[in-house]
Specification:
With about 190 residues, this protein is α+β, with helices and mostly antiparallel strands. The protein has 2 helices and 8 strands.
């Protein structure tokens, strides 16, 4: 799979999922059926951060073509997943898997009793430890028009937000120093 990249100017919002610490799976002996692509998904909470069309144009989360894809997800070593809406209400649950080559994810959504509700297959286009991108086609017959659904781990989003806050604070410090230079006219205070 291709390495993930950052798409366009995305709006950053605070992220606090319902269950920010999924069951620790790092200490669990992974079953042999878990492939390397599935391993990257385990033990993390994923949040949808963007939807981007084939022209790299960002699509708002409120757009009916993508609104159902936004939210939080957790993938378990037992082959089960749970998803939540952006406002952290349970959305769906069931079984999940990646193809051995990592090119496809399959979700089998089930109700509380375990009855299959639907199956969804998506084309994976990017995956690493912090980002997962899959592609949907609004019209299955037209592969030239698509939308990439971009997810990041909650931890990576928090790191990015902390870095942005630190950068903003640093810019604020520089602005204060620059203002002091202008007010005092003392060159040595400017360094």
């Amino acid at each position: 799979l291709a390495a993930c990249s950052t798409f366009g100017g995305k709006k950053e919002t605070a992220v606090e999922p319902v269950n920010p610490q999924p069951h620790a799976q790092a200490q669990v002996q992974l079953p042999s059926h878990i492939n390397p692509y599935e391993q990257l998904m385990l033990g993390k909470t994923w949040v949808t951060v963007a939807a981007v069309d084939q022209n790299k144009k960002q699509i708002p989360a409120s757009d009916k073509r993508v609104s159902n894809y936004f939210g939080f997800a957790q993938y378990g070593v037992n082959g089960q997943f749970r998803m939540y809406t952006p406002d952290q209400k349970p959305k769906m649950q069931g079984d999940w898997s990646f193809s051995d080559d990592g090119k496809q994810r399959v979700l089998v959504a089930k109700d509380e009793a375990g009855k299959v509700l639907f199956e969804r297959k998506v084309e994976n286009v990017g995956l690493n430890a912090d980002m997962y991108v899959y592609r949907i086609y609004p019209n299955a017959k037209d592969k030239k028009k698509y939308i990439d659904i971009v997810h990041q781990t909650v931890e990576s989003v928090k790191r990015a937000q902390a870095a942005a806050a630190a950068q903003k604070a640093q810019e604020g410090v520089l602005s204060i120093k620059q203002a002091a230079c202008k007010l005092t006219g003392r060159f040595f205070l400017c360094f």
